């Protein structure tokens, strides 16, 4: 049985890493069909819109998206494409796993953790943004809701339960931000009480940053609010070698978008130097999401085996291979 997914090739190095990823998915025999849709600078040039309606329609129809990095042009009038997509489809949970891989520049070994970040409210909702006429004062409202907190914390516990994870850590700043962060922590405690088989830990965000650097092995699943999650998930990527090895999933009730979380790297675009691993690992998440756990595991093991063999690795991983050389090496191990 085949399944159609929406494919967004993206900007900069996006098309190159997408070509590599689709090549491997085809070799994997995942039974996927691709409906390509434009977004970002390419869409702006072709359709006059960063996120044209035809692309939104494709996502709504297929419900599963594999997306390369996109560029939001600098300047007034342009809203972040990623933020807009998350709001439009109510993709409330941002899921960022990090796992240690062989032959990377990481300072740590045996890291295996997941950050679950609330994705639709908090500081990034940017309500009431205002700068005073004299340019001296800026104001932006941060909004956290019981509904938003409850569903993302419950998602984190259900994820832990489904994957045999033992602990969930709620990261907050309720000692100082007693309203918004306080509500999030209160709801997290309530939800945690429904999962007595899973250890629950509370940690203030500044301590969490220090603990992640000093003893990252103590973490399993981390759940937190939008701004804290954005920062912590990049910190966690640094524990395993950087954003080139960091995938991300944006999960909602009716749609899911799987992406490489790094940028478009325009300085190396078109040169065949880009590491496709982040998008490939996002494809692993996607395969798990659509019920292809066996294929997801095959792909994950092929990536690990290729890195262990140091076969055709890209420059950021210490090799001299091109993007497609690396992809072919992975495909050969499927």
TrEMBL record:
The record ties this protein, via Gene3D superfamilies, to: Isopropylmalate Dehydrogenase (3.40.718.10)
Keyword Oxidoreductase included in the entry's annotation: yes
Q: What SMART domains has UniProt attached to this entry?
A: Iso_dh
Segments forming domain Isopropylmalate dehydrogenase-like? 4-330
Keywords assigned by UniProt, alphabetized: Oxidoreductase
What InterPro entries does the record point to?
IsoCit/isopropylmalate_DH_CS, IsoPropMal-DH-like_dom
One GO BP on record is:
tricarboxylic acid cycle
* Gene Ontology molecular function: isocitrate dehydrogenase (NAD+) activity; magnesium ion binding; NAD binding
Quote the EC number.
Answer: 1.1.1.41
Q: Kindly name one Pfam family recorded for this protein.
A: Iso_dh
Q: Which family does it belong to?
A: Belongs to the isocitrate and isopropylmalate dehydrogenases family.
Q: What is this protein called?
A: Isocitrate dehydrogenase
Q: Which organism is it from?
A: Stenotrophomonas koreensis
The taxonomic lineage of its organism, from the top, reads: Bacteria, Pseudomonadati, Pseudomonadota, Gammaproteobacteria, Lysobacterales
């Amino acid at each position: 049985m085949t399944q159609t997914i929406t494919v967004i090739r993206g900007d900069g190095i996006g098309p190159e890493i997408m070509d590599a990823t689709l090549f491997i998915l085809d070799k994997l025999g995942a039974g996927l069909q691709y409906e390509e849709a434009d977004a970002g600078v390419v869409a702006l040039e072709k359709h006059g819109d960063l996120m044209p309606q035809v692309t939104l329609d494709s996502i709504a129809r297929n419900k599963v998206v594999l997306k390369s990095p996109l560029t939001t042009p600098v300047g007034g009038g342009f809203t972040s494409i990623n933020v807009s997509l998350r709001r439009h489809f109510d993709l409330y949970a941002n899921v960022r796993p990090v796992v240690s891989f062989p032959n990377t520049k990481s300072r740590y070994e045996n890291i295996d953790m997941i950050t679950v970040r609330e994705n639709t409210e908090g500081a990034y909702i940017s309500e009431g943004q205002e700068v005073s006429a004299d340019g001296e004062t800026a104001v932006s409202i941060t909004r956290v809701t019981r509904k938003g907190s409850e569903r993302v914390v419950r998602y984190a516990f259900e994820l832990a339960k489904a994957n045999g994870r033992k602990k969930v850590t709620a990261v907050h700043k309720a000692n100082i931000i007693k309203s918004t962060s306080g509500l999030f922590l209160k709801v997290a405690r309530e939800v945690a009480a429904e999962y007595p088989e899973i250890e629950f830990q509370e940690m203030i965000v500044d301590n969490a940053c220090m603990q992640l650097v000093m003893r990252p092995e103590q973490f399993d699943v981390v759940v937190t609010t939008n701004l804290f999650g954005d920062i912590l998930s990049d910190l966690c990527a640094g524990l395993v070698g950087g954003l080139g090895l960091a995938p991300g999933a944006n999960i909602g009730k009716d749609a899911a978008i799987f992406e490489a979380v790094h940028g478009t790297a325009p300085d190396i675009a078109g040169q065949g130097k880009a590491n496709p691993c982040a998008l490939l690992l996002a494809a692993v998440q996607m395969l798990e999401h659509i019920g292809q756990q066996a294929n997801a595991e095959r792909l994950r093991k092929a990536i690990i085996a290729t890195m262990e063999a140091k076969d055709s690795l890209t420059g950021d991983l210490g090799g001299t291979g091109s993007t497609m050389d690396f992809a072919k090496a992975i495909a050969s191990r499927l």
